Amino acid sequence: MDKVVATALEAVADVPDGATLAVGGFGLSGVPNVLIRALYERGVSGLGVVSNNCGAMESGLAVLLSAGRIARVTGSYIGANKEFARQYLGGELEVEMIPQGTLAERLRAGGAGIPAFYTPAGVGTQVAEGGLPWRYDGSGGVTLASPPKEVREFDGVEYVLEHGIRTDFALVRAAKGDRHGNLVFNKSTRNFNPLAAMAGRVTIAEVEELVEPGEIDPDAVHLPGIFVQRVVALTPEQAADKGIERRTVSS
Asked: What residue ranges carry the coiled-coil annotation (predicted)?
């Protein structure tokens, strides 16, 4: 039951080239930077990443993206990541863009054992009808586009069929965790982290504070340890290393 692994490098030691990863975080909030850096140090490449975005300010998944280690991204937000946009438009990267709520539910559904579900999000658009560019040829042409999806009517309303997502591994960051893998997330870090953790067949969590089993009130657990296979305790320096994406107050 003790799922604690000594180092981040040890925790990701069996992640192979070409693996699929569900990665938590939103912008700079709740991003498992230490685990991502360990993957970078191992030289893993050809990764298929499922995450809301693909890093920002040369942190998070941007570390792997800039090094050319990511082959495919399933996400909902490109944002101000210019390297992400460059690789996508240049034909170097395959990208499946999904409505944000649909992405969240696809991760949750995969983790809950639900193979597919119907949602009204995207009906009447290329999300349902197909034709969204997944890969460009570098000259403005599209070499791979999204296929059409099944649309079905319920009570007079049309819904599109979306499939649950399962990945080989998941990387998440939590404010607190115990040796059994029970996790607690702090405020907005509880965004995609629990959902990404559910979707991974092997989930690795970096935690800012490691406590003993029983120290977390069961009612306070945000993600049960059944979804977590490995726990890495961060050093105080790693736990405190949190960037600010856009400062909105004066010095």
From this structure: none
